[in-house]
Write a structure and sequence with these properties.
This protein is an alpha+beta fold. About 40% of the residues lie in helices and about 10% in strands. It contains 6 helices and 6 strands. The protein has a two-stranded antiparallel sheet. Strands 3-4 form a two-stranded antiparallel sheet. Strands 5-6 form a two-stranded antiparallel ribbon. The chain is globular and about 70 Å long. It starts with 10 loop residues before the first helix and ends with a helix. The model has no long low-confidence stretch (mean pLDDT about 85).
Length: about 170
């Protein structure tokens, strides 16, 4: 839905996962084998991936100042299950949190959140405020107050609804 460029670093994984559901069209890309393979989701991991996706969406809505779209498992509860370790680069001593196993989606998401926290970018990943969208996007606005994934689509629709509500 969004014309914005992808989120930086590991946030791109989170953005991709959240955007596997097109609320308006009613389609879920997690139903396709290609997307499951790309995200490293096995057949029996689809339900867990959907639960993670919706918990992430609720957190991204909170970043934009909105309540959760529905009742979800708190993201912190899910991420607490992710095995991570501190990886230290032998060449320069740089350290980062890394997934203990690179295939589980949950561990990769937890590492991406940790990386974004350190970089100060986690709260810039948001979900569109439009109820028929909730698409994830990275807010690059100077003040960090973006509200919609696309000003040309969701933003224009919201502004037109407000205009029409004012009446003649």
């Amino acid at each position: 839905m969004s014309e914005r460029s992808a989120a930086p670093g590991g946030l791109a994984l989170i953005e991709t996962l959240v955007n596997t559901l097109d609320i308006q069209a009613g389609t879920d890309a997690l139903d396709t084998p290609e997307v499951r393979v790309r995200l490293g989701i096995t057949g029996d991991g689809v339900a867990a991936a959907r639960e993670l996706r919706e918990s992430l969406r609720a957190a991204l809505l909170a970043h934009a100042g909105h309540p959760p779209h529905r009742a979800v498992t708190p993201l912190g509860t899910l991420l607490a299950r992710a095995p991570l370790y501190v990886a230290v680069d032998e060449r320069d001593g740089a350290a980062r949190l890394a997934p203990a196993d690179t295939s589980p989606l949950l561990s990769r998401v937890a590492a991406a959140v940790a990386e974004a926290l350190v970089a100060g970018t986690w709260t810039r990943l948001k979900a569109c405020e439009s109820r028929t969208c909730h698409w994830a996007y990275y807010d690059r606005s100077p003040a960090g107050r973006g509200r919609w994934c696309s000003m040309q689509v969701c933003g224009a629709r919201a502004k037109m609804r407000r205009y029409r509500a004012k009446g003649p």
